[in-house]
Amino acid sequence: MSDPAFWLVFFLAALALNLSPGPDLLFVLSRTLSGGRRVGVASACGVCSGALVHVAAAALGLSAILATSALAFAVVKYVGAVYLLYLGIQALRSAGGTQLSVKPVPRASAWQAYRQGILVDILNPKAAIFFMAFLPQFVRPDQGPVALQLLGLGVLVVLVAIVVECSLVLLAARATSALRGNRRLSQWLDRVLGSMLIGLGIRLGLAERV
User: Fold this and answer.
1) What's this model's pTM, rounded to 2 decimal places?
2) Per-residue model confidence as pLDDT tens digits over 93-106
3) What backbone phi and psi angles, to 5 degrees, belong to 61?
4) Which DSSP letter does residue 70 get?
5) How many angstroms separate the CA atoms of 95 and 80, rounded?
6) How far apart are CA 26 and CA 76, in angstroms?
């Protein structure tokens, strides 16, 4: 496969995978609904920062532990599920607790959203397994050390994710900005956020190794 064809296939695959509605993307969109564009972008950056940890682990071979050890997978899975449930319950408890002005006043600061995004991605064992399964398909033995190729390809996937998620954040923020001055609607936004996070926690808790 020639270099242009190789990179075309790689970037199309990375784009398709990042557009699929997984836990990371749903978390970012839920944070955008609750806190606006700035918090949404911070969440996306946090999720992508967490993904870089999985990329480094994949390059070093550490993610293989999650793919082969039922105990390690279960521990990470349940810790992640509990964390998402906690965030969801907190959002439900604060539903409509603060009147939103026309200018978004996020429930969580951008820094808090960033840190939460990191944890959401790191505590998702399927993210680790994804990089272990996806990246090796594009490794070319004649192109240098495998670890460096895995690292480089993983960083490119994360860059695609940043572009995709930030673009969706901007669209979601624009669609909801008109709703923020309405107290009743702001309550429903918090309830949507809480329900989505609880749903993600349940989904992660029920996830099986593949």
Assistant:
1) 0.71
2) 765 544 433 334 34
3) 85, 5
4) H
5) 23
6) 19
